[in-house]
Amino acid sequence: MASNKKIPLRKCVATGEMMPKKELIRVVRSKEGEVSIDTTGKKSGRGAYLSKQIEAILLAKKKNSLANHLDVKIPDSIYEELAILVEEEKD
């Protein structure tokens, strides 16, 4: 009997869509309040997930959903980094 491995699902804070964890980008706020992009998915701290679509990143910025979820102001540089990551994934 083959056992099916459960795929961990997470919710995109911008679109509200449930997706497999591997299809999302994690943004983390450390205890010190620093915000960074977690490409490994293993950094400690409060995490929020965004889908790997430029539309989701723009929506998160417009609705301020990342800042609301992480309870900290998100610098524009984080959104720029996210956009670059998504563009690199497309290629």
Automatic annotation (TrEMBL):
Domain YlxR: 10-82
Gene3D superfamilies the record matches: YlxR-like (3.30.1230.10)
Pfam families linked: YlxR
NCBIfam families listed in its UniProt record: RNA_bind_RnpM
PANTHER family: BLL0784 PROTEIN, YLXR DOMAIN-CONTAINING PROTEIN
UniProt protein name: RNA-binding protein
Organism: Bacillus coahuilensis p1.1.43
